[in-house]
Design goal:
This protein has about 130 residues and is mostly beta strands. The chain is built from one helix and nine strands. The strands form two sheets. Strands 2, 3, 5, 8 and 9 form a five-stranded mixed β-sheet that branches. Strands 1-4-7-6 form a four-stranded antiparallel β-sheet, with no helix packed on it. The chain starts with a helix and ends with a strand. About 15% of the residues are buried. It comes from Phocaeicola massiliensis B84634 = Timone 84634 = DSM 17679 = JCM 13223.
Length: about 130
């Protein structure tokens, strides 16, 4: 009797636990094409903001879904369309950079999506100068 109650309890727990976002998507993964994982920024002025973009193409047969984009610091903010990107279509991710330190910088961007390459890592490099 105890074993039966244990099995029923385990089934209830399993049914109530939320599934990971990628569960069920393993067979629905796609491929992403992009030109370069290193983005070079021309010199930028101290305290000024600068926009740069990452262009991604869905090169697979399933819709591309971007779950999250993280930066290695608060000086870079990403914005992107939250809608799935159809196969053979492109999307543009906007990165707004604002630096308050003079000199060379080298920051990381991590894109988590339903691509087989996920997470996709990019690097932003540049130099900040005085006005």
């Amino acid at each position: 009797m105890k074993q039966l109650l244990y099995v029923i309890l385990m089934l209830i727990i399993h049914a109530c636990v939320p599934q990971n976002k990628t569960n069920g998507l393993k067979d629905r993964r796609t491929y992403v094409d992009y030109l370069d994982s290193i983005i070079q920024i021309e010199e930028m002025h101290l305290g000024a903001s600068k926009d740069t973009f990452i262009n991604l193409k869905n090169a697979g047969n399933e819709p591309l879904i971007i779950y999250n984009i993280e930066s290695s610091c608060g000086c870079t903010v990403a914005s992107w369309e939250k809608q799935p990107i159809s196969p053979n279509k492109e999307t543009k991710i906007r990165l707004k950079i604002r630096r308050f330190e003079i000199g060379y910088f080298n920051k990381n961007i991590k894109i988590t999506c339903n691509s087989k390459q996920s997470p996709i890592l990019f690097r932003i490099q540049g130099t900040v100068i005085k006005k």
